[in-house]
Amino acid sequence: MNTNFPQKILHKIEEMRLSPLPPWLFLVKKWAVYVLLVLSVLLGALSLAYSVWGAQEAQMLTILPEDPSAIFFSLFSLWGFVFLIFVGSALWSIENTERGYRVPLLLWILSNLAVTGALALVFLAVGIPEQMDPLIEAGIPPMSRAGVSDGLWDMPGRGRVHGMIMQMEPSIVLEDPMGMQWNVLVSRDTRMQIPLEEGRRVGILGDVPEPGEIHARVIVPARKPLPRQLPPKKLQDRPNTLNMQRK
Amino acid sequence: MRSQTHIYSSQEGFESLVHEYTPALLRFVQRLANLDLPAAEDIVQDTFVTAWKYIYSFDPSYSVKAWLYRIARQQTVSAFRRTKNRPTGAYHLEGDEELLHSIASDIDVPSEVASKLMLDAIHEALGTLPEDLRAVLVLRFMDDMSYDDIADVLRKPPGTIATLLHRGKKQLAETLRRHYPSLVHEHELSPKNPA
Description:
Order of helices and strands of chain B: HHHHHHHH
Shape of chain A: rod-shaped
Low-confidence stretches of chain B: none
Strand content of chain B: under 5%
Strand content of chain A: 5-15%
Number of helices of chain B: 8
Oligomer: heterodimer
């Protein structure tokens, strides 16, 4: 090595009139990483708590045994988006924290998920999701509790219908949120599952032999107030659009 | 949050850094990229220019050596990308023989075959390894760095460094077996211990 080489380097730096980037820039960057990490865990926990709560409210456990894929609809609506943001921020953070890269990626993700999950349980216990509901409903309706419930139960192709009981006698008639009327065939056992009465909102799981008719196997109360919640109308006040009523 | 001002952010501190680490960085870059001295000097100069620019990003509680080596490695890889050249030469440095002996002994080459010819072959084989494996071997055997320091240079977990080291030695042994079958019997070349 040329013994003057170190001097040459210093001379070059002087010649370039190069100044170090200001210290505050690096402080801001470091803080940004930690803020992002905290935010991702916090938002992740909020969205997970809300998704779990929404799924409970939408009677997800009733649906899952018959249609396991339903879990994707609920959990991966809001939670999925936040999770992607979380993973992205975790990856970015690994590269930018002082020694974050020393922790294997999988450990990063798992530990953050564990913290997120624990925090979500706390949020659920103190009832944060209920308080979030109006905000989500106003901001991103399809991901709200009502949106998830609508999406989960408005699937006649998979034997799921929900709406309001419009008539009990001579047969049960249900009107779904789109205004379609369903003739509900129900066995004595099924009928005993919950008290049924006009004006009650229910979700029905069963077989749909043709549009407008459902053979109910399970009837559950629809806990959520439907978005287009209307006061119950008397059937006789309405034009009779039902042409599939059973005698 | 720790203050970002430190001894190396002063002009005198940085000058001492340049004087202290230039020879080591030159050797590292030459070994990593099989470059001749002028090309290595360009990279080391860029390394210190970058180090000065980002001097406040350095946290003095960590090893300044690892920090400088990391920048030097980044500069070397960038230089490869700019020129789209992969290092192929084999510039022998003073003192390499002793260091290559340590690699030879670690991949279980018997002392009688660890001749000058064998060391040349190891040097050549080292040049054919992927950059990350070569970097791990060079840092461990030629720069005598700890796993923790290598982890800081390569920005990987120490466990991954151990894996890379093991894989590097294994691949080096396989390359030697494939390209220099006459130098050593197949059974004699195997990584001694998993790292």
